[in-house]
Amino acid sequence: MFSYRHAFHAGNHADVLKHTVLIATLDYLLEKDAALTVVDTHAGAGLYRLDGDYAGTSGEAVDGVQRLFARPDAAAPLADALARYVDVVRDFNPKGGARIYPGSPFITHHLLRDHDKLKLFELHPTDARSLDANIAQLDAGRQIAVLREDGFGSATKFLPPPSRRALVLCDPSYEIKSDYTRVLDFVTGALKRFATGTYAIWYPIIPRPEAHDLPRRLKTLATKAGKPWLHATLTVKSSKIVTDSSGAKHRPGLPASGMFLINPPFTLKAQLQAALPQMAELLAQDRNAAFSVDSGG
Ligand code: SAM
C-alpha cells in the first residue's frame, strides 16, 4: 500500500480530463453567491513541478497537459472547457510553458472565493507533508483544512455543510482492489447524509472487472436515489499488452479513465461534448483514442 505518488502522473491525460471537469463544475457552482464547500477526499501533494525528479521519471505530462501547451498559435481554437483548463494551468506558469502543475487542491483554491471552504484529505505521509507545506504558502487561514485522515472514512463529517452547497471530489489511487468498493460505500453514505451535493468520482479504465463495474454501480446508485448523473470517459490508447522486437511484453501505461458525476451541472454535458473530441484528438497515443459522454436521471 501507498506506493502511488501522484507526482509521477501529474498533468497526464487523466488529469486533463479530471481537472477540466473539476474546473467546469466549480465555475458553474460558483455562479451562486452562497458559500460552497469543496471536499477533496484524496488530495495528493497539491502542486507539482513537471521538470522535477518525479515527473521527469515517467514524463506523463508530455503526453498530457504539455501537448495542449505545445499547440501552434494558428491551431483551431479549443472548446471552452478545455481552453478554460489551459488558462487555469497557465495562471500557475506566468513565465510561460507548463512547468508547474496545480493538483486539485490548488486548482480549487484558485477558483474559490474568500467565503468558500476547502477540506483536503491526504494519508500518504510524504504527500501530506508536501501538501501542508504547499498550502501554508497560500496563507489561506481557516478557509482550508488539511487532514491526515482516511478520506473514505471521515470526509462525510463535513456533509452537509452549513450552506448546504458542496462539491465532493473522490479521486483515490486505486492501488488496492478494495478502493473500488470503498468508493461505492463512501458515495452511498455521503448521498444518504447529503442528497443534493455534487459528487465527482475519477476512476481508471483498466482491464480489471472492478474498474468496469464501478461506473455501472454508481449509475445504479444514482438512479435508485433519483439523482441525475453524468459519465465521461477518455481513451488515449489500446489497453493491450505490447510485445517488443526482443519478445519482451510491456503493459501500456494507463490507457483511459472516466469521471462519474452525481448531481452534475446541467451545462456540463454540452461542454464535454465539445471538449472531449478535441481531448481525444490532441492526447491520442494510438488509433484507439476515443471518448464518450452519457447522462441520465
Ligand atoms: N486529487 C489529486 C489531484 O487531482 O491533484 C490527486 C490525488 S491522487 C490520484 C490520490 C491520493 O490519495 C494519493 O496522494 C494518495 O496518497 C492518497 N490516498 C490514498 N489513500 C487515501 C485515503 N484512504 N485517504 C486519503 N488519501 C489517500
**SSE pattern, N- to C-terminal:** HEEHHHEHEHEHEHEHEEEEHE
**CATH level-4 homologous superfamily:** Vaccinia Virus protein VP39
Mean pLDDT: 95
Number of domains: 1
Keywords:
single chain; 297 residues; alpha/beta; Rossmann fold; 8-stranded mixed β-sheet; two-stranded antiparallel sheet; 12 strands; 19% strand; globular; binds S-adenosylmethionine
Quick synopsis:
With 297 residues, the chain is of the alpha/beta class. It is 38% helix and 19% strand. It has one domain: Vaccinia Virus protein VP39 (Rossmann fold), CATH 3.40.50.150.
Walk me through the structure:
The radius of gyration is 18 Å and the shape is globular. β6, α8 and β7 form a beta-alpha-beta unit. It has one domain: Rossmann fold (3-Layer(aba) Sandwich). The strands form three sheets. The chain has an eight-stranded mixed beta sheet, sandwiched between helices. A two-stranded antiparallel sheet has the order 2-3. α1 packs antiparallel against α10. By secondary structure, it is of the alpha/beta class. It has ten helices and twelve strands. The site of S-adenosylmethionine has 20 residues, from α7.
